[in-house]
Amino acid sequence: MHHYLPGYMNDELKQRAEKLHLGEIKRHIFLCCEQTKPKCCNREDGLVSWEYLKTRLNDLQLTGAGGIYRTKANCLRICQQGPIAVVYPEGVWYHSCTPEVLERIIQEHLIGGRPVTEYVITP
């Protein structure tokens, strides 16, 4: 019964958090992709970008203990010049996130800590 008490974290949840290296995350990128109603870009382009992001982060060993977390978002509500991405903790929003642009975001922002200004939506 204890697993329903507020504030109680069961062993399975602890193990999952450890497996995902949640305590080591430095940056988190959300990518608008596979939307229910695609508006910012067509569905196929969004999925190509998502697959590229997943593959590159894995290839570069940035997922998990590498400190970068990624999440597919159904819609980030910009709905223009997509795919759209946002990187936290900085809160930098990007437009036109093709694989080429994502490579720059990975290298310059996620690894290097410098936003890719040409594609930044917010100042």
Describe the fold and architecture.
With 123 residues, this protein is an alpha+beta fold. Helices cover 32% and strands 15% of the residues. It is built from 3 helices and 4 strands. It has helices spanning 11-19, 43-59, 99-111; strands at residues 27-32, 68-73, 85-88, 92-94. The chain has a 4-stranded mixed sheet, covered by helices on one side. Helix 2 crosses helix 3. The longest helix is centred in the middle third of the chain and has 17 residues, at 43-59. The radius of gyration is 16 Å and the shape is globular. The mean pLDDT is 89.
Key structural traits:
alpha+beta, 3 helices, 123 residues
Mean pLDDT, all residues: 89
Percentage beta strand:
15-25%
User: What are the low-pLDDT stretches, counting only 5+ consecutive residues below 50?
Assistant: none
Helix count equals 3
Radius of gyration: 16 Å
Shape, per Cα inertia axes: globular
Query: Cα distance, first to last residue?
Result: 49 Å
